[in-house]
Amino acid sequence: MPFPLRHYSAYAKINLGLRILGRRADGYHEVETIYQQISVRDVLSIAAQPSGIVVGCTDPTLPVDGENLAGRAAALLRQHAGVAQGCNIQIQKNIPVGAGLGGGSSDAATALVALNQIWEIGWPLERLAPLAAELGSDVPFFLRGGCALGRGRGEILEPLQLPQGWWGVLVYPNLVISTHWVYENANFSLTKSLKNSKFYSLTGFADRLSEWDLHLANDLEPVVFNRYPHLKELVEGFRRAGAFYAHMSGSGSAIFGLFLDKSDALSALAGTTQGYTTFLFHPIAPRKE
After folding, report:
1. Catalytic pick among 42, 93, 107, 138
2. Is the dihedral of CA 236, 242, 244, 246 positive or negative?
């Protein structure tokens, strides 16, 4: 009897803010970020099989061998849970790659959650979290999703209740930016004056969307915008179109603008430069156990 095929959504994220607090002894950077999961998604179709792990992907540029994060997630869970079965994972790739949207991390976290069900392991999300952290700094966030403050490398998470009644426009300018290059070239001394005002003091302004721009920032924007000034122009274009908040996500290259009204978001979407990949999106609530 064939194993049933199940379908799972792997949602992208944007960073509403990203602050770099310094370099750690392990070579990573200490960060403080606000993750928000959004409705742009990959779809993972997964079935158990008697043995082995097979991965396929609609994007031919992505690896489907041992370098694929979803496949690595499957192998890691299989090892730690002592599962004898294998699986077949087919990824319908919609989240742009190298855009600061966490597509690979979301695929990995979704594979962990899905196979925890399919293989009937039954672990709570808290028990999957160490495996997620082993796979990447962003992966633990995607286990539950929603909105969260991330500290450490981004893996120390605190759920946040921020206003969710807005619409967003996402632009992927068909540009892959190396995260390593951004961090190596960013001058974080420029942001020292902001370090005393940390994102975890959100209680004073979180509900006032008009104040987000006064308190939140992305420390990686200066180096990226210096090299790719057209990305800064996209941010400024969103603000002219009425966005209450507009920034680059993570280390780029995706740019987003947030709007109070869906009609304003649709107008901004229609006015975006031709030739770029664009999405209309809304925030996604946390995954339920």
Report:
1. 138
2. negative
The one catalytic residue in 13, 42, 93, 264 is: 13
Nearest CA among 175, 193, 190, 174 for reference residue 223: 190
Active site residue 138: yes
pLDDT tens sequence across 113-166? 999 999 999 999 999 999 999 999 999 999 999 999 998 888 899 999 888 899
Q: What's the residue count for the chain? A: 289
Distance between CA atoms of residues 100 and 78, nearest Å? 28
Cis omega (within 30 of 0) for bond into 253: yes
**Cut 0.70: pTM above it:** yes
Return d(Cα 113, Cα 120) in angstroms, integer. 11
- For the chain, the helix, strand and coil percentages under 3-state DSSP, each to the nearest 5: 35, 30, 35
What are the structural domains of the chain?
6-159 (3.30.230.10), 167-281 (3.30.70.890)
pLDDT digit string, tens, across residues 37-51: 999 999 999 999 999
Q: Quick check: is 264 catalytic?
A: no
